[in-house]
Amino acid sequence: MTFNDAKDICFKRGGSLLEISDEIENNYITRRLLFDERYWIGAKRIMHYSSIFLYTNGKNM
User: Is the pTM of this model over 0.85?
Assistant: First the structure.
């Protein structure tokens, strides 16, 4: 599944991709990933080889 596929599925279900807003959310997702769960987050690199990501709402990660 691509980023855009995941974004479209969330939108069609009335939701959006995950945008982590604080340390508590980050820790929760980190713990869930230990159980091999997978999540798409709403963030993309600003350029192909960049190490800088922005959330889809334009905010910095």
Answer: no
